[in-house]
Specification:
heterodimer; A: about 575 residues; alpha/beta; 6-stranded mixed β-sheet; 20 strands; B: about 350 residues; mainly alpha; two-stranded antiparallel ribbon
Chain lengths: ~575, ~350
């Protein structure tokens, strides 16, 4: 029976289309996965279902009744519970209280009798407390019951959020990135937990997560969202091998399919040769940016550790890796938005570890943050003027408008009313006007349509020609590698790999693994491949495409050692071994 | 009854019996200060619920008290009703105004809400309490004179029976304080606190935001009004001056200074707000060592509040009572020889 029926849902924020024509069915007792790149509209869909935002069009029915006029608390009472991507626990309350609240919020308790402490309230109070303790026990959180929720580490907070949602006795549980920030073993634990929860509490679930290993293992059926539309749907095995899905995660795979993008690639090919000399010259004078052994984090959470990274003058470097791998935190620690906890950052020979961000930006290190950091009510022209004024550089708006002709037409318009792509152009133009020596751009293409993304990547070549070094954090790996000279692959808060972009482009297995995770049985396949002893096991070669970097360390080491002996790349070796296995 | 309720009730009775003796034998001016302390104590108590529990900002608590004071004065002096009726009408008027002020709070947060409530305080100060159109409510320039009054047969007017009024107010204050602590520890209190910590999570976990925000404003205005409705009784008349904008700001400042999340802070704050300026104006001038003349007036009090607030925000972010509480709990842990909880590395 269909429990949740969504038809033709559409959401627009100003000019940005967040969801378009999304239809989805969830059956009772099912765990449905919802995946897609950043900005695909997954959280927006969650917000629509839980009533936090109202859709512009389309309908949502829950158990046959429309949710159109139901406010969030009413939906909660009907049995829809959710967790949040950015944790939303009640931090000044204890863990126990966090779980008691939804229990008695549903029970419609009376404020006056609560204040007077009447028997009815006393009874309800005890019942709520007992039930909350039961859930805490089931989730192995019993010993944290009397601690303030804000004092717990993020991993445990996520579990408390899950417990809080369960305390409502939900029929449908919306889980927004429950595995964010968890390591591989914790994720495995979570997967088991979700299955146990389904059996014990009899709830259906809608699960959003970037960790494919979790989604593939837990979900019965998967919807893939991209740019606010349903890109694909099906059983996990089918989705995993869907070329469209792989492309959505990695960007366009080949220049042929990229259309316009092909030109961009061709254009970049030539200057790179010239650049090589410039980089060579710069190398002799030392790197422009050098990060040594850096660690940083937020609160109790250490997000990155032991980061070593260099950028030469005039070089384009990409940082790639799954969500939550620590790329954004690295940029923030470099530009001084947060303080590094360990390590050293030198820029142009000067030590800038822990300097204030405005000081760092005056030295010529510009940071275009994720979400762009624009002022929505300021006009385009004022935004750009502000940058030149505070940086003390000459007023070169004309030059900026030459690079971004579209901004010239809109110079008087408020930035907040521009489209997402135009806003990104403003952010980049602003950074450019301060005449930086190094430009750090975080998630430039997030939530933008492919054509705009292509134009933006062409801009990076323009920067390079002007002699500006670029450090790029990007979800569109293919496009980023097409434009970059070198790349760092981030995994679980540290740098797992560093290689020239060319090499990584050839060796797709290496990257796709860090994004899509491994299928549960692929580790065995790699083991077989690495040992080269050829059991008679047929493995889908496409599986190899998305082979994981998260294989057991000893397997990976074996693979790498053999690759080094034979002087080839690990990915190519793995593919060849696999074919051998197949052949036998 | 749960043990918690019995303990709170016992503490309230002990507090009442101690506090009721405090002003006995003092000169009338200090007795008036003691009664006034409870009026402002109610004002800060109303902020404990609204700001401390529910996380809403309001800079018009003195306006609620003023509306109730005029309501009570009008009922007693203008319509010759009993004082009990006066209190009921005063509290009702304040509660209704509280709901009206709560309506913008459904959409507004933080600084915008603060400015809206400040605006309401200004409007009531200038155009209701001091305007001739509302003479029927404010009793004109002279205000309402309350010379003789009794509550349930007890004479409580200011001239001769001020201490009776003080005892009645103190008893009421203790009752409301206990109810507030009960509320904090119960389901309804958790809902208010959930709104403070995360409205998004509260609404998606089944808390009706509209209902509980309005409820917080209504109860809070009612509590402030309960204090205000006694003002004509203790002062003998009502005038706009005690309920002007600055009193609202002072209530908020002293509430934060004392620890806006804790009920006992309301008693501390009320006492501070009523007694310290009076002491300053009375003993603040004279000659030091027969040579240096000094003159400390009421203005110094406002300066002192400002300075103390800055110091508190730096040194005691949880307020004076919050700090006392934390120290007491640490001391208690030492007494019980309980090992200190390990600090996790940040």
């Amino acid at each position: 029976m269909t429990m949740l029926r969504i038809r033709n849902l559409g959401v627009r924020f100003g000019g940005v289309v967040a969801l378009q024509d999304v239809s989805l069915d969830l059956n009772r007792g099912e765990i449905l996965g919802l995946i897609g790149p950043n900005g695909a509209g997954k959280t927006t869909l969650f917000n629509c279902i839980s009533g936090v935002i109202a859709p512009n069009e389309g309908t949502i029915h829950f158990e046959g009744r429309s949710l159109r006029f139901a406010p969030p608390h009413e939906r909660a009472r009907r049995g829809i519970a959710r967790t949040f991507q950015n944790l939303q626990l009640w931090g000044s309350m204890t863990v126990l209280e966090n779980l008691e609240l939804p229990i008695d919020a549903i029970a419609r308790r009376n404020t006056l009798s609560d204040a007077l402490g009447l028997p009815f309230s006393q009874y309800a109070e005890r019942a709520a407390s007992e039930r909350a303790r039961g859930i805490l026990h089931a989730l192995d959180l019993g010993r944290h019951a009397h601690r303030l929720a804000a004092d717990l580490p993020a991993g445990i907070q996520r579990r408390v959020e899950l417990g809080r949602a369960l305390a409502m006795r939900p029929k449908l549980l919306l889980l927004d990135e429950p595995a964010a920030g968890l390591d591989a073993s914790e994720t495995e634990h979570l997967a088991k937990l979700l299955h146990r929860v389904r059996e014990r509490f009899r709830v259906s679930m809608l699960l959003v997560d970037h960790d494919m290993s979790l989604v593939m293992r837990v979900c019965d059926y998967i919807y893939v969202l991209d740019f606010g539309r349903v890109l694909s749907r099906g059983e996990p095995s089918a989705v995993r091998n869907d070329q469209k899905v792989i492309a959505a995660y990695l960007g366009e795979a080949t220049p042929e399919t990229a259309g316009e993008g092909a030109e961009a690639v061709v254009v970049t090919a030539e200057p790179r040769v010239q650049r090589a000399d410039a980089v060579e010259v710069a190398r002799s004078t030392g790197p422009l940016l050098e990060v040594k052994g850096m660690a940083a984090g937020y609160g109790h959470l250490e997000v990155i550790r032991d980061i070593n990274l260099t950028v030469q003058a005039g070089e384009v470097v990409a940082c790639i890796g799954a969500n939550g791998a620590g790329k954004t935190t690295t940029l923030r620690a470099i530009s001084g938005v947060i303080r590094p906890r360990a390590g050293r950052v030198t820029f142009g020979g000067a030590d800038i570890t822990g300097s204030r961000p405005e000081h760092i930006s005056r030295m010529g290190l510009a940071h275009v943050p994720e979400g762009r950091g624009l002022f929505p009510r300021l006009s385009v022209e004022d935004t750009l003027r502000l940058a030149t004024d505070s940086a003390g550089t000459p007023d070169r708006l004309a030059a900026a408008f030459e690079v971004f002709p579209r901004l010239k037409q809109r110079r008087r318009q408020a930035v907040g009313t521009l489209s997402g792509g135009e806003q990104q152009m403003v952010a980049m133009a602003r950074a450019l006007l301060t005449q930086p020596r190094l430009l750090m751009i975080d998630e430039m293409s997030q939530g933008l349509a492919p054509t705009i993304v292509r134009q933006l990547f062409q801009m990076i070549d323009v920067f390079r020609e002007q002699g500006t070094a670029v450090l790029l954090v990007e979800q569109f790996v293919e496009s980023a590698l097409a434009v970059a000279d070198r790349a760092y692959i981030f995994e679980h808060g540290s740098i797992a790999h560093e290689a020239p972009a060319e090499e990584l482009r050839r060796d797709r297995g290496l990257i796709s693994g860090s994004y899509l995770g491994s299928a549960p049985d692929s580790t065995e396949a790699i083991e077989v491949a690495a040992n080269g002893n050829g059991h008679h096991r047929v493995v889908d070669p496409q599986l190899m495409e998305i082979l994981s970097m998260r294989v057991p360390a000893e397997v990976k080491r074996a693979l790498e050692e053999r690759a080094e002996r034979e002087g080839r790349s690990a990915g190519a070796l793995a593919l060849e071994l696999l074919e051998e296995v197949n052949h036998n | 009854m749960m043990p918690g309720h019995i303990v709170r009730f016992a503490i309230a009775i002990v507090a009442f019996s101690i506090l009721a003796r405090l002003p006995v034998g003092l000169d009338p001016a200090f007795q008036f200060d003691a009664a006034l302390a409870i009026v402002w104590g109610f004002g800060i108590l109303s902020l404990v619920l609204l700001t401390g529990y529910a996380g809403q900002v309001s800079l018009c608590q003195a306006t609620f008290a003023g509306v109730a004071a005029y309501g009570a004065g009008m009922t007693v002096a203008g319509m010759h009703g009993g004082y009990l009726l006066g209190i009921v009408i005063g509290v009702l008027a304040a509660t209704v105004l509280g709901v009206i002020v709560g309506l913008p709070a459904l959409r507004l947060h933080g600084i915008t809400l603060a400015i809206v409530t400040l605006g309401i305080a200004l409007v009531f100060d200038k155009y209701v309490f001091q305007d001739h159109i509302f003479d029927w409510f404010t009793g004109g320039t002279g205000g309402w004179q309350v010379t003789q009054a009794s509550l349930l047969g007890i004479p409580v007017d200011s001239s001769t029976h001020l201490l009776n009024a003080y005892d009645v107010m103190l008893a009421l204050f203790c009752v409301v304080a206990v109810l507030m602590v009960n509320l904090h520890q119960s389901g309804a209190g958790r809902r208010f606190r959930a709104i403070r910590d995360s409205e998004l999570a509260a609404s998606t976990m089944g808390v009706n935001l509209t209902r509980y925000k309005l409820l917080a404003f209504a109860i809070s205005a009612g509590i402030a009004g309960l204090g205000g409705s006694f003002y004509p009784l203790i002062a003998g008349s009502v005038s706009p001056q005690p309920f002007w904008v600055f009193t609202s700001l002072q209530l908020a400042a002293i509430g934060v200074l004392m620890g806006v999340r804790y009920v006992p802070a309301a008693a501390l704050g009320g006492l501070f707000m009523a007694v310290v300026p009076d002491v300053l104006t009375r003993y603040g001038h004279g000659t030091f060592m027969n040579r240096f003349n000094y003159d400390i007036s009421y203005d110094w009090f406002q300066l002192a509040v400002g300075v103390l607030l800055v110091l508190q925000l730096i040194l005691l972010p949880d307020g004076v009572w919050g700090d006392i509480r934390a120290r007491a709990s640490r001391a208690w842990d030492v007494v019980r020889m309980k090992p200190r909880e390990e600090m996790r590395p940040a």
